Amino acid sequence: xxxxxxxxxxxxxxxxxxxxLWAGTFAPESMSSERLVLDDTFYEQNLQxxxxxxxxxxxxxxxxxxxxxxxxxxxxxYENETIPFFLRxxxxxxxxxxxxxxxxYPGARPADLYAMLKRATDAQPDLVLLDVNxxxxxxxxxxxGALANKTLKRDFLLEPxxxxxxxxxxxxxxxxxxxxxxxxxxxxxxAINEKLFAAQPRHYIREAVTALxxxxxxxxxxxxxxxxxxxxxxxxxxxxxxxxxxxxMARIYGQGPLTERNDSVQMLERTLQYAQEHNINILxxxxxxxxxxxxTFFDVNQLRANEDYLKNILDRAGAWYLDLRDAVPSxxxxxxxxMLRDAHLDIANQLAQEIAxxxxxxx
Length: 363
Fold this sequence. Notes:
Blueprint: H1 2-22, H2 47-58, E1 63-67, H3 70-73, H4 83-92, E2 99-102, H5 110-120, E3 127-132, H6 139-144, H7 171-181, H8 184-188, H9 190-197, H10 204-212, H11 243-253, H12 263-277, E4 282-286, H13 291-297, H14 300-316, E5 321-323, H15 341-357
Parallel strand pairs: 1-2, 1-3, 3-4, 4-5
Helix pairs in contact: 1-7, 4-15, 5-12
């Protein structure tokens, strides 16, 4: 039965890809000037990432790739106010030909970052910058999904051990589904995608905005009411932190101590091992957290203990990293871990100084 299903899947996949190409509609998503385009299809297809890595591979050195979650992506700032944007400016003072490509995206778990690092190998970056955010080591976050971008499961096809939940069905069958989603048919035809795979595009950005700035109840909105204020650049002190936001923070900070059995911990260790085996130069950094806000609801000592646990992993591996947990004052946060413009500028400058202290990028 498994063999028949596999043969059917291969036949279906080949047919759909052939029809897709015949129709002349195979068109990868383009990148914006500063960061990935996060439309409703992003977490269900890999075309944009494939194009981005191909573009990086074609560039001349020195080239830097930044991997991470929404804190690296810059979810509460404009695209010219992110850590990668300011880092490019700072590194070009050292070498004017430096390129810095922001491949971070909101929701990225350690398994995402490991898979993205594997994808980055062929692009031959001179440096990979990767954030270590304690948020995505929470057991509650893991229970919701080991991968934010499900298409990256294809990069785990030959892995002997994978985080729980990456493959809910047969590995080969799921990988075929993933590859099919990367065609234009899977990307732009949600109804067909849902029929074939019972899948709907994920809406991380929309959910994040709703969590930070919940819409008013319909009955409370007058006909002449002004639009909701943008969350871009707004400090956390200007927002209300009531039950919905506390519930969201509980997913992240109320989950107890980290252990070696944690799938995300194992993914961090595998990332370190992979970088060493493939001679990839990585600068990790421990991301700051808004302890003033977090401490209002949860035990900051537990938070620090979990961060120390991750720091010890980096220490044991002899990794190159910066501990930037205390680099940002609470006033420079938009919420519990997303930072505002000036904090991004400070962190980018500290990262650039660290790179220069280690000899800089190739000339």
